[in-house]
Design a protein that fits this description.
- The chain is an alpha/beta fold and 181 residues long.
- The chain contains 3 helices and 9 strands; from the N terminus they run βαβαβββαββββ.
- The protein has helices at 14-32, 47-54, 107-117; strands at 7-12, 38-43, 62-69, 82-84, 95-103, 123-131, 145-149, 155-156, 172-175.
- The longest helix is centred in the N-terminal third of the chain and has 19 residues, at 14-32.
- It is globular, with a radius of gyration of 16 Å.
- It starts with 6 loop residues before the first strand and ends in a 6-residue tail after the last strand.
């Protein structure tokens, strides 16, 4: 198995992720069966989760992509969120599902949600694979569908990066603190 030196340990295995994504897909399929939802991938971190999740959604649906970033190349949120919400995407009257990799301070999703609500979707829900509730800055903010809640570790893999590295790992691993401290 490809296990770079910088990884302290594997937190969530490939098999655990696969089972959780399938379960989330089943719930979303039921929920959106007759709604032709618009699933939004929040780049870049969500790309792996998104690609797996959309194939577990077994009803008509559409996809699109947005870019959001709050982290520069460090493990500490910059506190400012940059959003690139494509003007060309029509959210009006659509059942929108935002797909995120991880909910941390919630600054990113809070900004994104508010921005998208101005575009008059019929509904707007948030799906996140991982959640670090202990890190929340936007108090009370939660996702509508959460895969796995984790402790306060900086994790990489399955799309998540540190300084643009490790997105290709098929599991979620804890990064050795010595890498960033
Ligand atoms: P928030 O705005 O603080 O909730 O941050 C959300 C974004 O920060 C995520 O979409 C990730 O890109 C990044 N992030 C937060 N925690 C981690 C982590 O443990 N590893 C890698 N990226 C993270």
């Amino acid at each position: 198995m490809y296990l770079p030196d910088e990884i302290e340990k594997i937190l969530i295995t490939e098999e655990e992720i696969k089972a959780k994504v399938a379960e989330m897909g089943r719930i979303l399929t039921k929920e959106y069966a007759d709604k032709n939802p618009l699933f939004i991938c929040v780049l870049k971190g969500s790309v792996v989760f998104f690609a797996d999740l959309m194939r577990e959604v077994k009803c008509p649906m559409e996809i699109n992509f947005l870019k959001a970033s709050s982290y520069g190349s460090s493990t500490v949120s910059a506190g400012t969120v940059s959003l690139d919400v494509g003007a060309e995407i029509n959210f009006e009257g659509r059942h929108v599902v935002i797909v995120e990799d991880i909910l941390d301070t919630a600054r990113t999703l809070y900004s994104l949600k508010n921005e998208l609500l101005t575009r008059n979707p019929a509904s707007l829900r948030i799906v996140t694979l991982l959640d670090k509730p202990s890190r929340r800055v936007v108090k009370g903010f939660t996702a509508d569908y959460t895969g796995i809640a984790i402790e306060d570790h900086f994790v990489v893999g399955y799309g998540l990066d540190y300084s643009e590295q490790f997105r290709n790992l098929p599991y979620v691993g804890i990064l050795k603190p010595s890498v960033y401290s």
